[in-house]
Amino acid sequence: MENQPATMPVTEWSAELRARVEEVKMDVHVFAGHLKNREVDSKEDKGEQIANAMLAYRHLEDAKMRLGKVIQATEGVNVYDTPAK
């Protein structure tokens, strides 16, 4: 996706980005689960690790929704609850 051609339709580019964000979001979800279930050193703050991973997940959800809003503003179609392509 680097250096996308200016001729690529906005909706297609947004949809591709939404799909990539969804993949990262699922990876972060798995990562957060790993953080919850692992043993930590005494110097580590497990709660802080988990909290930040969950915040990252929520921000990715928001990013995906915002890209859907780009599509909505372009086509007039609400894709907020539509799975990424």
What key attributes describe this structure?
85 residues; 0% strand; mainly alpha
Strand content: under 5%
Give me the Rg, rounded: 17 Å
**Number of individual domains:** 1
Please state the average pLDDT score. Answer: 88
Q: DSSP helix count?
A: 2
Low-confidence stretches: none
Structural class: mainly alpha
Helical amount? 55-70%
Distance from first to last alpha carbon: 15 Å
Write down the overall geometry: elongated
Order of helices and strands: HH
Number of E-state strands: 0
Q: The biggest beta sheet, please?
A: none
Fold and architecture overview:
The protein is built from 2 helices and no strands. It is mainly α and 85 residues long. The protein has one domain. Helix 1 packs antiparallel against helix 2. The chain is elongated and about 55 Å long.
Detail the topology: elements first, then pairings:
Elements lengths: L9 H28 L8 H30 L10
Helix pairs in contact: 1-2
Brief overview, please?
The chain has two helices and no strands.
